[in-house]
Write a structure and sequence with these properties.
With about 400 residues, the chain is an alpha/beta fold. The chain has 2 domains: about 150 residues, Nucleotidyltransferase, domain 5 (2-Layer Sandwich), CATH 3.30.420.40; about 180 residues, ATPase, nucleotide binding domain (Nucleotidyltransferase, domain 5, 2-Layer Sandwich). An 8-stranded mixed β-sheet has the order 5-4-3-2-1-6-8-7, with helices on both faces. α1 crosses α3, α5 crosses α14 and α9 packs across α10. The relative contact order is 0.12.
Length: about 400
């Protein structure tokens, strides 16, 4: 079964093609990514035979860019299929599934309408998820499409974790904690089991997904027990351009005293806060660290706030789990910043946690970087949301389970 995966982020569009038979290979036949920087799309494509193509796209629209990217599946030097009809199913990462969708779901007009309706809860992500669905319809016609919801993994949250301490009537309005990055957190739990050669039964794991968007998940027995993102992906940790949690009275103050509109507040909190808002330079951690090396004090403050909130968030997850056995770092910052991992882990030496500094500095991938005597295992995992989405499609369409 050939499964095409569409994974749209706030600043990227990724796609992978898998030849899937339920065996855990993790390796796609074809992968492509568009990164958006300063209004332009930068496309990179790689095939299983290591043929690489790079080009810039005019970025008239994300939909047009996505269609242009997908044509390279059967055209040019990156061709891996002869015709779009060879694709059996397309899986989409969809950020918000609300209370209705708590598992992978075949996409139809009703599901598309729900994704559109839930865009008010995930305004950055759900609309571009719909663009991806439209691109597939444009090119592949009636091929089956599957929505794999970021919120689904957190369906196991108990009421104490997902009910907000506001008016009880909020629940009937769908106002509750949903949690996000579910496919990443689910994959990291699975991969940790493989790395440690353990079923992790009874073990307490915290997954730190640190990319442009950031969230933590407290996991036990493969189930999400708590998480930092909430009603929308805006809550929780400080992120690249998102504020994370702030005192809601600040918003009331800005509405009353500075005449902000709701749309202006949404833009401020989602696009102009976080690392970018504090540093005034960038939402990219690499650029923040470079600016610190040049003596930029605002960049240093941005990093200090980021680390403070990350450590506080991990502490909260430890309290929810009432302990910690495994700490996982993943996504762009989590996988690539030795500094972030080192400083974060130093805060939890009181738990008997210690890492091997040399291992940490050597760009570890899918490795345990903790010292042998550490009471907490610390892993760096290359998150593969795409493979997790493909496996969900396989489970749904083939009626089987993925085996290792």
């Amino acid at each position: 079964m050939k499964i095409l995966v569409m994974n749209a982020g706030s600043s990227s569009q990724k796609s992978c093609l898998y030849e899937f038979n339920g065996i855990n290979t993790h390796s796609p036949l074809w992968e492509a990514q568009i990164d958006y920087q300063q209004g332009q799309g930068h496309l990179k494509i790689k095939t299983g035979q290591c043929i690489v193509k790079q080009e810039s796209l005019p970025s008239q629209s994300r939909l047009d860019d996505t269609i242009a990217m997908l044509r390279y599946l059967w055209q040019g030097e990156t061709q891996v299929i002869n015709d779009p009809s060879e694709v059996d199913v397309v899986g989409h990462r969809v950020v918000h599934g609300g209370q209705e969708y708590q598992s992978a779901t075949l996409i139809n007009s009703e599901v598309k309408a729900a994704i559109a309706r839930l865009s008010k809860f995930a305004p950055i992500h759900n609309p571009i998820n719909l663009d991806g669905i439209s691109a597939i319809e444009n090119i592949f016609g009636t091929v089956p499409q599957v929505a794999v919801f970021d919120t689904a993994f957190h369906a196991s949250l108990l009421p104490a974790a997902y009910v907000y301490p506001g008016d009880y009537g909020w629940i009937e309005q769908g106002i509750r904690r949903y949690g996000f990055h579910g496919t990443s957190h689910q994959f990291c739990n699975r991969r940790a089991s493989e790395i440690l050669s353990s079923d992790l039964k009874g073990m307490k794991l915290i997954s730190c997904h640190l990319g442009n968007g950031c969230s933590l998940a407290a996991i036990q027995n493969g189930k999400s027990m708590d998480t930092t993102m909430g009603f929308t992906p805006l809550e929780g940790l400080m992120m690249g351009t998102r504020s994370g949690s702030i005192d809601p009275s600040i918003l009331i103050h800005l509405l009353r005293e500075a005449n902000y509109t709701a749309d202006e507040l949404e833009q401020l909190l989602n696009k102009h806060s976080g690392l970018l808002g504090i540093s005034g330079i960038s939402g990219d951690m690499r650029e923040i660290i470079e600016a610190i090396a040049q003596g930029n004090e605002r960049a240093e403050l941005a990093l200090d706030i980021y680390l403070h909130r990350l450590k506080a968030g991990i502490g909260a997850m430890i309290a929810s789990l009432e302990g910690l056995d495994i700490l996982v770092f993943t996504a762009g910052v989590g996988e690539n910043s030795a500094l972030i991992r080192e400083v974060t882990c130093q805060a939890f030496t009181f738990l008997g946690l210690s890492i091997d500094s040399e291992k940490n500095k050597r760009s570890p991938v899918d490795q345990d970087i903790s010292n042998p005597e550490s009471k907490v295992r610390v892993l760096v995992v290359h998150t593969q949301e795409d493979w997790e989405i493909a496996s969900e499609c396989w489970n749904l369409m083939a009626g089987g389970k993925v085996t290792d």
